[in-house]
Amino acid sequence: MSPYPRAALPIESQERWLVDGFNVLHTAILYGRERGGWWKEEARNRLLDRVRGFRDGELWIVFDGSRMPEGPSDREREDAQPDAPRIIFAPSADDWLLSEVRRAATPAGLHLVTADRKLGDRARHHGARIVKPRAFLARCDEC
Known about the structure:
Elements: E1 16-20, H1 21-29, H2 41-51, E2 58-64, E3 86-90, H3 93-103, E4 110-113, H4 117-125, E5 129-131, H5 133-142
Parallel strand pairs: 1-2, 1-4, 2-3, 4-5
Helix pairs in contact: 1-2
């Protein structure tokens, strides 16, 4: 049994998008240049601002670590808005994401957004679709 809680989705009839939060933030928004404060709420909100209009399925954004010391913002609460992305903090985002892929009844309905090749290869092996961060953000910008 996995130590990570299962994402609380009612059914798996719609596509699910799982986002490797800090990976996407670094590779497609900060481009690896901005080092100071990348783990803080302000940096996370830059990613959340970009995905705000996403409506192509359930959106889960997973960040490494425990909930940040400044406490959850309204945007990070799971009950904030019904169509808002779900924000998860996990000791290992990679492990949480792989756990979701392995447990999915229909992994082909999962889109994993990451630039991490190792994570992407492992998830693809289980049937998930891999989406590059910049392609995902371009899709969000079109919404």
